[in-house]
Structures
1.
Amino acid sequence: MTPALPSQSPAPRRRGRPPRTEGAPDAPAARDRILTAARNEFAERGYDKTSIRGIAKAAGVDPALVHHYFGTKDQIFGAAVELIFAPTLAAPDAVHGGSREGAGERMARFMFGVWENPVTRLPLLAVMRSALTNEAAAAVLRGMIERRLLLRMVVELHVSNPEFRAQLAASHMIGIAMLRYVIRMEPMASAPVEDIVAMVGPTLQRYLTED
Amino acid sequence: MTPALPSQSPAPRRRGRPPRTEGAPDAPAARDRILTAARNEFAERGYDKTSIRGIAKAAGVDPALVHHYFGTKDQIFGAAVELIFAPTLAAPDAVHGGSREGAGERMARFMFGVWENPVTRLPLLAVMRSALTNEAAAAVLRGMIERRLLLRMVVELHVSNPEFRAQLAASHMIGIAMLRYVIRMEPMASAPVEDIVAMVGPTLQRYLTED
């Protein structure tokens, strides 16, 4: 929707919608554009090299608007991380959405479903890099995983020390991601997903279900 | 040994030792000092922020001497990485130096022996960070691990796909290190090493020995 130009009469008021002032971006669209820009900036440049100003520029808005919707750099990083992790947040549903015997394999397959696709993988790796090189970013990531992922994973794990076991399982997949996609060490980098799932599935199964 | 001062007569020649010119550092000591400085610089600043000039300054030598002994930045990074990984390079001996049944547990305990000590852990994490954020650093690390670690680990693994299995085992430990020491997520961050070894030992055992 284009804002009214100076030479035209003001756009007619639409019922239920506040009048639009010239130049004021449509609020929900602006917020989305800022969040998308934030995700892209953090994914491309990492936490350290991303700024509110850079995000604002990429979104085509004033930096004050970024502050208005999201607050501090850490707060917008948190929002971007939640967006980047959105596909991963479905992991508990995958793990718990089937027979108990298949939980480990489902977890492994689910993670590869996210990582084998560069569109979902690259921003995730960028977030991991940021967490590795910046304490504030690590704290944001930690908080997000605890609130949005870990709780939902463990609530249906009927084993002792479920948080510990969920983290053992997650750590295994994270380590595989590092060798396969980041350090790119062979043969892990090129191994068929099926081969990895065949080895790792039983491991995750034991962690998640066997007391 | 202090170099001769201008007002003194030159130091007497010592049999078997080349004459020392004023200001010329004792060669082996200088090389060691440079390597130690390189390790510290890379460990503190990471790959990107470390330079030949910075290393030379920390070692108290001319940058030309750094080039003389080590070559390019990647070559001195490689030498520093080998120094930083020296404790880890004993892993194959630990794994293979005992009964087959204890291999997995020995590997897990050995890794914790290196990581639980901040003196050995911190430079390792710095190298991992560098590899994560810099492609050249990742290539150096990859080459060093392949040449110095992987080969010796697999030569005594009598299973199918020994390199793949060794990397599965290593990836598990790397992922645990990331959760425990870098992202510092609880309960993994504070779990007793014994608890982790109890869960992970059997996993590594299966990867390393069971076909």
2.
Amino acid sequence: MPIPASQPVAPAVLTDLLDGRWAHVRREARVRMAALPSPATYDLTTEQHREQVFAELHELAKSGYPRVGFPVSHGGEGDLGGSLTSFEMLGFGDLSLMVKAGVQWGLFGGAVEALGTERHHDRYLRDIIELRLPGCFAMTETGHGSDVQHLRTTATYDPATGEFVVHTPHEAARKEYIGNAARDGRIAVVFAQLIAGGSEHGVHALLVPLRDEAGLTLPGITIEDCGRKAGLNGVDNGRIWFDQVRVPRDALLNRYGDVAEDGTYSSPIEGDSRRFFTMLGTLIRGRISVAGAAGSATKSALTIAIRYALERRQFTRPDSDDEVVLLDYLAHQRKLLPALATTYALHFAQEELVTTLHELTTDDHRQRELESRAAGLKAATTWHATHTIQTCREACGGAGYLAENRLPQLKADTDVFTTFEGDNTVLSQLVAKGLLTGYQQHLHELGSVGMARFIADQFVGTVIERTAARSLIERLVGAVTARDEDADLLDRGWHLRLFEDREKHVLDTLARRLRRAGEPGADAFEVFNAAQDHVLRAARVHIERVVLEAFVAAVDRCADPDAAALLGRVCDLHVLSTVEADLDWFLGHGRVSTAKAKAVTGAVNDLCRHLRPHAAVLVGAFAIPDPLVAAPIASGAERDRQDAQRGHDQDRLPRKEDSGRATAS
Amino acid sequence: MPIPASQPVAPAVLTDLLDGRWAHVRREARVRMAALPSPATYDLTTEQHREQVFAELHELAKSGYPRVGFPVSHGGEGDLGGSLTSFEMLGFGDLSLMVKAGVQWGLFGGAVEALGTERHHDRYLRDIIELRLPGCFAMTETGHGSDVQHLRTTATYDPATGEFVVHTPHEAARKEYIGNAARDGRIAVVFAQLIAGGSEHGVHALLVPLRDEAGLTLPGITIEDCGRKAGLNGVDNGRIWFDQVRVPRDALLNRYGDVAEDGTYSSPIEGDSRRFFTMLGTLIRGRISVAGAAGSATKSALTIAIRYALERRQFTRPDSDDEVVLLDYLAHQRKLLPALATTYALHFAQEELVTTLHELTTDDHRQRELESRAAGLKAATTWHATHTIQTCREACGGAGYLAENRLPQLKADTDVFTTFEGDNTVLSQLVAKGLLTGYQQHLHELGSVGMARFIADQFVGTVIERTAARSLIERLVGAVTARDEDADLLDRGWHLRLFEDREKHVLDTLARRLRRAGEPGADAFEVFNAAQDHVLRAARVHIERVVLEAFVAAVDRCADPDAAALLGRVCDLHVLSTVEADLDWFLGHGRVSTAKAKAVTGAVNDLCRHLRPHAAVLVGAFAIPDPLVAAPIASGAERDRQDAQRGHDQDRLPRKEDSGRATAS
């Protein structure tokens, strides 16, 4: 497969494209963070680390950082996209600080803003923004982590005193893993089953004070430290029990449900379940922030591993004393370069999601679609981070295991991202369910011809909604009329058709399969459970299509022709390595022939070789300031040592006998 | 696909089979370790952890543990298999202690024993066994980690004084990552290029004192602490520089090469390279020990994750208030049960390898085959550990991220296993190279008919050498004459044929491809490098066949029919999930039809469901004592909380309205 030559590109050209709409936020964050990088934390005790992070959080508050996302009316700047972008940038520093900031301003502050009303905003927002009131987001319980709709903490209204009584009825109902709880939080947004007028009204949120100004726990509150974790030890996670704690009626964050003085419940939203998911929907930003930080950590890891791979040498070439640079080995390229390509793809998908959310006006349908995409991208990005950072660690061998080279901390800190702010497996099911909702409603009404038409319509409709480059994608998809088996492996239209067709097929067969759940006598749980691997695949292939389209749109936006050409090859590698990872499906469903399957593997190898000379530029474009990259193995020390060796080797004695070549390469 | 019903089996029956030949060593270790489990280390500073581990190492020495593997003539018991098994058992405790013991008695003590001669044995072995002389194994250098044949430390013989001068010529030649160096080691086996009589003789090992009895570093020695690592922080890794350090002539471990008083070099082995690999070959035990410990850590992680999955509930069934046990979800079964099945498979392969090594008499050919198998199994087992422990962490959600539940430590400690004692990617290439050696020698001599015959012969020969159950395997392989497309998915003969055929094909095509390297004008490095993914696949499929045959042999050894039947299903799940992971190859090479490919996925689901009721027994059979499992989530706390919730829920108020079902499942 002939690959068009790629010209050298200056990293700054790519950086401009990657930086996108909130480039100013990124540039400012780089300057601020490079000037005062977080000191290394790996030798700190838990308490020392927490202290350092809390001090840094205060510095952040002073810098005005948290204002960006809050409303102008309460001292903020009302720039949601800028706020999400600045969270992403925090991901280049100590991830404990990112999470601590996320708890204070994203979850806690965000809940007060989104679920509260004017009285809460007036009373709390400024103190929250300026960190005079450190708070917690107390949703998760020990017994209910993923299934938070069924949590068991109660908030019972007592009309005699006009108070809510907040209570932990048993051990499984204690609040679990609450950030800011073990040390710094003074107040919490507590999610509890609301009981008023003698009945339950589902989960609502209330503000419950935890500690006084001196930091002493208030009466009725018990807090336990969750203790040491795999990572993120600068965040003070704790467990909270409430023993009949009384708070005034106006502690209820009452935007979506209120209780009158006499105990009468009222809500603008019908149905506990719908109301609950509306409340959760306002918290979409948490997932987007986690995905952004995971992306940043992945970029840090790749920057370290690829810079090392460009300097580190191991084993000589046959019949030569030249030692081979690691990144010249195909196996090493295959470890790092497809992961780098997919990191680009996910970056552009994330950027597009942030932009769409930023521009969102009140529109129930698009909100749901965005929630689904945020959930899916969060799953994809955090799994990619876990996999890639692991690979980077291994690619750096023992050096990658040393704390000073940062990969261990990046791995440990991001590891929980796959299961917090929504377990990825659970989120993937939500994505699939969202895709099926339209399906299931319609399939009952339509005959098979109508169904086929509906399926086609559904996807055209979905494409229209989802990508910023609709006309481009449609043009590319339709550009080639030849049989796809003959399509060139680098044909973008073929790539797009392949991903779209796969999604259609997986979703179509899944919908048919799940219809059985509605048949008389069927055990709905068993039908769904037996198809769970199919459900997870549906979510994955859907997100893979969305990500690809975002990447294609970004390449199209690139005004510099050389940069666009190079990015095109990165996109090719992303597509074909994704296809290669799912070849069993494509082969098993007759979407590629065995000849083409082999060609895909060959093309991945060719593209790795092709992009090898551009690897430094491609990680350089992430523009992570050197003080944040920090790892000694990524800072030229290895090159210096190689030079010293070469200097020395010139004076070596001749070997008495030729040892023969016995390298492992 | 109908799966024969499996009867309940007592875990002890399986434990007997798993415990195998060195059952007495395992039982003794369980009792000893359960009586005094390592205290939790996650809150310790590096220094505290090192102190604790060194104290535990002294306890081990007192218990007589290290004696098992050393020769009877020097206070040992001469039981190599027992020694390797007891290393494996240490893997159920603090892995820092396992590695520290491995450095002292496996690497350092093993090198003195294997590379030294009587004078070294007499002088050092007892002190080593009894830990009066803590030592290091100083092979790796900063510039040469994998390619140790080219390390740069020199040992130059000075006939004027009868001494060797050990020297670090430049920064890349400093000794790197040396266990026991930063704190406790008093002496080191140092690997250096031997220079005598004015020429180099390749890498040899010498004993070089590092510290005096008071622990002070000796003149000419500089030691630096490697500092904090991702895990294994109870091991004091350090860097060592030698500045013209003089040691007497008899410091040379001279079994494979000696220097006379006048500087004349002599060796029983011709050729630097062959000599070097003979010296390395004696260190095969290190790789086997790492594989064993990785297996133990994997068993610990699976025990924790599966016990939790059997008690943890999340989300209600449709139209019910019953919350579903995690392991009832197909997605959760798929995360844990195939990994459990492969853990069984690798256990039996490891056991077989230990037995074969234990019984080995001097036989050059079998030694090389065993080295290759040890390298391949080490790669397979440690990658499986990394993958499985990661999965277990995720399967336990936030609870899996808490240090008290041990998964973070298991993950961090074992993470380096994939790259130490040989980087897995490098080891895999050694395996492939070993398989090809015979090939390449023969292919030049044979025409195509002869080659085909040779290929067939080669594999029969290989099978004969490798498995303890040769006649069984041959009977099974030959048992079915029907077309394989029609073979039952649980047909063991089909499994064996499928794996053997894949190995033949991959190796055959690889051999043809690599022959090009010998053609005139070919760049041998480029030819080899372009095929590197093919090379890695060859190693993997070879090891997968070896592992499968070991599992099949173990099922055959099982005298209890119910246990054998259950193990048969575990073996089926291992085989079919391995096939599923490589379906792109089997489909792409016409080895399974698309219909059969779908059936494989269905069968994996069916086998997961089938084994679900036996999951507790299958992890129980590992017989890890409760004080070593240790994690609170694996000890019934979750069940107690579920009970408390159920008790409480009986008194709950009725909901005012049906909330509708909105679970993610």
